[in-house]
Amino acid sequence: MTAAPRMPLTPAPRTSDTPKAAGSEPIAHRRALHAIALFEAVKGLAALAASIGLLGLLHQDIHQLAVALLWRFHLDPALPYPAILLHYADLLSAIDLRTLAPVALAYIGVRFAEAWGLWRGKIWAEWLAALSGALYIPLEVAHLVHRTNLINAAVLLANVLIVGFLALQLWHRLRQKHD
After folding, report:
1. Structural domain includes residue 170
2. Which domain holds residue 154?
3. Distances in Å between the alpha carbon of 115 and those of 2, 38, 105, 121?
4. How far apart, in whole angstroms, are the C-alpha atoms of residue 21 and residue 30?
5. DSSP code of 2?
6. Are the CB atoms for 51 and 101 separated by under 8 Å?
7. Contact predicate 19/27, CB 8 Å
8. Could you report the per-residue pLDDT of 124-133, keeping only the tens digit for each?
9. Which of 101, 94, 112 is nearest to 55 (CA)?
């Protein structure tokens, strides 16, 4: 009786310790892109909801609506937060919403295109997300300096992390292309 050949106890070496998805990308990379895509889609939906809300105010006296809201909830317009509401109502009244609508539609379109492209793993979407996110960083830093609080710091940190992740992925891809 012949003995069966012995199988090695150690598995064959893997080319990488990172699990790969079907598209030969690391699963963690795909999950991160999906999370960023969802975040961009939520920003697009929020902008769409705000735009629809603003369209409802197109032929309204926004200042008068704000005053009626304050009176409805028995708030003194001289107090700080109600005064802020009135201030922004006056600012919103000065904006021509017909001019703002195409800008809002463009923003919404870019957010949804970016979300779709990131979800599908498109390189152009990674570039778009990295560049558009990087454009906001100086504004977010200025806002944090002007109004230092936890929310502004978290927004800045999240944006820096997203832009950093995407920039690192793009840099790795470019490096692999040239090797």
Report:
1. yes
2. 122-179
3. 62, 7, 15, 10
4. 8
5. P
6. yes
7. yes
8. 999 999 999 9
9. 101
- The tokens describing 99, both together, are 């001019």
Tokens of 39: 């975040």
Q: Check whether 1 has a pLDDT greater than 60.
A: no
| pLDDT 10s digits, 5-31 | 565 555 544 444 445 555 556 888 899
- Amino acid of residue 91: L
| pLDDT at site 101 | 85
74: left (phi over 0), alpha (psi -120 to 50) or beta: left
CA within 13 Å, CB half, 71: 6
The answer to whether residue 103 is domain-embedded is no
Q: What is the predicted pLDDT for the residue at 150?
A: 95
Longest CA span, the chain: 100
Structure tokens at 20: 């790969």
Report DSSP state, residue 171: H
Q: Please, are residues 82 and 70 in contact by the beta-carbon 8 Å criterion?
A: yes
How many Cβ atoms from other residues are within 10 Å of residue 54's Cβ?
16
- Total tally of structural domains belonging to the chain: 1
Instruction: Flag whether 132 is in a domain.
Output: yes
- The confidence band for 146, taking pLDDT boundaries of 50, 70 and 90, is very high
